[in-house]
Amino acid sequence: VGDSSPTQYFSNCPDPWFPGEKYKNGDLALYEGNIYECRKKDCKEKGWTFVGPCDPGPIPNHTQAPSGECPNRWNPNIAFWYDKMDEITLDDIVYLCREKKKCQDESNEPGDGSNPDSVSAWLPLGPCPHEVNNCPDAWMQGETYEEGEAIERM
Predict the structure, then answer these.
(1) Which of 18, 20, 35, 138 has the most CB atoms within 10 Å of its CB?
(2) Terminal C-alpha separation, the chain
(3) What is the C-alpha separation between 80 and 123, in angstroms, rounded?
(4) Which of 115, 119, 81, 116 minimizes the C-alpha distance to 101?
């Protein structure tokens, strides 16, 4: 109870735990900010041992997208194609996909601070430099477009 030793944080965070995914002895998974290790031949919800809290480190504070160009606009109609480390743009902000399965869920819109899954899925990298982005936004079902407005057909 009275442990005075400092908490050790791990900076190399494993991928998040997903229900239904198969884990074997020694596998690590992230759950609610903590790292757990599978200590059985086959782990699902049981068999996990607490390793320690995970601190992914400082969030980068970029002044513009690292590549200097704007990635494609986020499109919930093709969310199932997004992969870990993919970059997208939404509302002139560039986001990096950190968790593939959460990025592939169209309900996890980047920048939605009220949705914890969105926050853990998409890392904001910074504003998109307008002078480089010559491509029109992707067509989105249900959007209203003005006559003569350019759109990208996917």
Answers:
(1) 35
(2) 58
(3) 18
(4) 81
pTM above 0.85, yes or no: no
Across the chain, how many H-helices and E-strands are there? 2, 6
- DSSP class of residue 19 equals T
Separation between Cα atoms, residue 28 and residue 14, nearest integer Å: 6
Strand-pair partners of 97: 122
Bridge partners (DSSP) listed for residue 96: 87, 123
- The CB-based long-range contact list for 110-118 (8 Å cut-off, 24+ gap) reads 110/74
- Token pair in block for residue 46: 């049981």
Contact 87, 95 (CB under 8 A): yes
Please tell me whether residue 100 adopts helix, strand or coil conformation. helix
Q: What is the pLDDT of residue 151?
A: 65
Element housing 90 (H / E): strand 87-90
Q: Mean pLDDT for the chain?
A: 75
User: Which residues are 43's β-sheet partners?
Assistant: 23
